Structure formats: structure tokens, C-alpha cells
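Renewal narrative, Specific Aim 1. Our central claim is that a sequence can be written position by position from structural information alone. The example that follows is taken directly from our test logs and has not been curated for this report. It begins with the C-alpha cells describing the chain, in the order in which they were read.
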């Protein structure tokens, strides 16, 4: 994941996206909900720290399965290490959701 602020690179982090049989949506979005801690109702109340929801139930969020970062393992969400998810969450809070664009490309 490449994070830029006003066109300047802020950070680059490894992520995990959808595994076979699932999809991570592509396109351009704005975050519509930020939740410091969310528990997935679809997947056994799995903790999703620093969730940034951008389309339906899809979010960028922290994961405690950091050993899987860089591989496709999710049900469609974009997973980051918890400290990186926190940094992104706080950056979006500071910048404002309306001034944040999430672009996901294949």
C-alpha cells in the first residue's frame, strides 16, 4: 500500500487482500466510517482494529495475523499491521474523510 499526502509519499506498507474465491473491490472511494475497533459479524466476531470502511462491509483494517501480510488471505478487506492501520486511521482523522481518497487498483 502506498499512502500519499498532498501528492507526497507518506508511507509504503505490505498488505493482504482477497484470497481465491473472494474479491477486493477496485476503484476510487472515500471512507464513510472510521471505527477504532470493529468486530466482524460475518466472520466470528474477528477483531478489526482501526477499521476504515470504504464500500459496504469492505474496510482497510489492522490484523493480528501479521505473518500473512503480503499474501492474499482475506475475504476482501485490506489488512495492515496494527501499528500501520493506526497510523493510517489517525492520518485520515486529521485530514478528514471528505479530503481522503482511497484508490485501489488491480
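The sequence written for that structure reads:
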Amino acid at each position: 500500500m502506498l499512502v500519499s499526502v498532498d501528492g507526497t509519499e507518506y508511507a509504503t506498507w505490505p498488505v493482504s487482500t482477497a484470497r481465491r474465491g473472494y474479491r477486493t473491490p477496485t476503484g476510487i472511494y472515500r471512507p464513510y466510517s472510521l471505527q477504532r475497533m470493529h468486530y466482524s459479524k460475518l466472520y466470528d466476531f474477528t477483531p478489526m482494529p482501526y477499521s476504515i470502511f470504504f464500500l459496504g462491509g469492505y474496510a482497510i483494517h489492522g490484523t493480528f495475523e501479521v505473518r500473512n501480510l503480503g499474501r492474499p488471505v482475506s475475504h476482501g478487506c485490506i489488512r495492515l499491521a496494527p501499528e500501520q492501520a493506526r497510523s493510517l486511521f489517525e492520518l485520515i482523522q486529521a485530514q478528514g474523510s471528505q479530503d481522503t481518497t482511497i484508490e485501489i487498483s488491480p
